[in-house]
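Hi V.,

You were right to ask for the full record rather than a summary. Here it is.
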Amino acid sequence: MERASIGVIGGSGLYRMPDLDDVVSLAVETPFGAPSDELVIGTLEGRRVAFLPRHGRGHRLLPSEVPYLANIHAMRQLGVTHVISVSAVGSMREEIAPGHICLPDQFIDLTKSRPRTFFGGGVVCHIPFDKPVCADLADVLHRAGKKAGAVMHRGGTYVCIEGPQFSTLAESQLYRSWNVDVIGMTNLPEARLAREAELCFATLALATDYDCWHETEEVSVEQILRIINQNVKLAQEIIRRAVATLPEARGCRCGDALAHAIITDRAAISPEARRRLDLLLGRHLAG
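Predicted structure:
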């Protein structure tokens, strides 16, 4: 199977990465079903990168229909250690203007029907999740964004809603009272599962609008798509610069997230559960 060390999950507007060379498309099967689409693996700045459009080519999947388990598991199957998640978001702060880019480091979960874990079915794991974003990867993206000329906002809170509708005005004002920074519909499931898969994860959040709280700005799909189209090339340039400077060796603790997380008695884990979770737990259960 083809291998890659860096994964990119493309959100609204980012359905392909034209700068990849030596491209191979790969249909990956996982114990959790098929990913959103074929993964495209290619070379960027001398590194093998796996690209996956979150909503599928042609944007076919609602946020609640995205196969998050399969997407993250497929990245891990390919040998990915770092996942850059690109996402269109609404801004909840005046200073994060449409066209700006935010690197949130916290999340609030308001989803209702998303997968939250690879585990269960006879295996219980509790991972620390107080810092859901890899700070080392976010630092690389921040430096890359500044060099690419983007207006970057380092840190902040992403509130993840179910969708697919945008917020009501009352909801938007409530979230503002919580001092959140951006709003979206997809990134928290990815962050949870990436941590369980022991992957470094960071969100590159492209602000497209002011949600509906802003008195003089309206939210429309037309406006959002216009800003997305402006930001796609910028996002691709940030990714290119990040890939070029991302250290191959990891200095963070993301790669050992499961080391002390398995609660279940090893003797009580069934052969079926071991097979299903072998990629994630195999080395922790060995011996």
